[in-house]
C-alpha cells in the first residue's frame, strides 16, 4: 500500500512523461483518431527508441583501464600515474644542512605567526606543464596519500595527516 501511495505521489522525470505521452499517442493512432494527433510530433523519435539508441551506444563504448593509459605508472615524477587516485606534490627541499621531503612552501617571513599559515588544495589543469623548482628544491614527486608516509618524517606525516582528506 505504501508503495502504491509513493508511486501516485512521486514526481516524474521528463523522460517518464515523454514515454507516457508516447504510449497515449500510440493508442490514439491505433484507434484511428489520428486527426487529433499532431503527426509531425508523433513521427519524432519516441522515448523507447531513445532508450534503445542509448543502450546501443553504451554497448559500443570501449573503456581503457586507467593503468594502461600511461605505461610509466611507476614514474613518481609523472602526474599521469595512478589516475584513479588523488596525487599530492611533494618536494625534497634543503632545510638548513639536511634535505627533507615536505609540501611545497615559501620561507617564513619575520612577524608571521601560525595563524597565517595555510595549506591550499588545488587541481592541476595543464598536465604537460613543467615544474620549475626553486633554489632550495632538490627533487619533486607526485605521490598518493598512501605513499606520503614513506617519504615524510614520522612527526611531519602525523601532523599533516590531520587535515588530508582520504581519496578512498
TrEMBL record:
<dbReference type="InterPro" id="IPR040008">
    <property type="entry name" value="Ribosomal_mL46"/>
</dbReference>
<dbReference type="GO" id="GO:0003735">
    <property type="term" value="F:structural constituent of ribosome"/>
</dbReference>
<protein>
    <recommendedName>
        <fullName>39S ribosomal protein L46, mitochondrial</fullName>
    </recommendedName>
</protein>
<dbReference type="GO" id="GO:0005762">
    <property type="term" value="C:mitochondrial large ribosomal subunit"/>
</dbReference>
Amino acid at each position: 500500500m505504501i508503495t502504491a501511495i509513493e508511486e501516485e505521489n512521486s514526481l516524474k522525470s521528463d523522460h517518464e512523461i515523454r514515454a507516457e505521452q508516447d504510449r497515449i499517442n500510440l493508442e490514439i493512432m491505433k484507434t484511428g483518431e489520428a486527426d487529433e494527433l499532431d503527426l509531425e510530433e508523433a513521427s519524432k523519435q519516441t522515448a523507447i527508441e531513445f532508450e534503445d539508441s542509448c543502450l546501443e551506444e553504451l554497448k559500443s563504448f570501449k573503456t581503457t583501464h586507467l593503468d594502461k593509459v600511461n605505461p610509466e605508472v611507476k614514474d613518481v615524477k609523472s602526474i599521469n600515474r595512478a589516475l584513479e587516485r588523488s596525487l599530492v606534490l611533494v618536494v625534497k627541499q634543503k632545510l638548513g644542512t639536511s634535505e627533507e621531503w615536505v609540501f611545497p612552501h615559501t620561507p617564513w617571513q619575520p612577524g608571521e605567526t601560525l595563524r597565517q599559515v595555510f595549506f591550499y588544495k588545488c587541481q592541476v589543469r595543464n598536465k604537460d606543464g613543467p615544474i620549475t623548482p626553486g633554489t632550495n628544491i632538490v627533487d619533486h614527486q607526485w605521490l598518493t596519500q598512501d605513499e606520503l608516509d614513506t617519504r615524510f618524517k614520522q612527526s611531519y606525516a602525523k601532523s599533516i595527516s590531520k587535515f588530508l582528506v582520504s581519496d578512498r
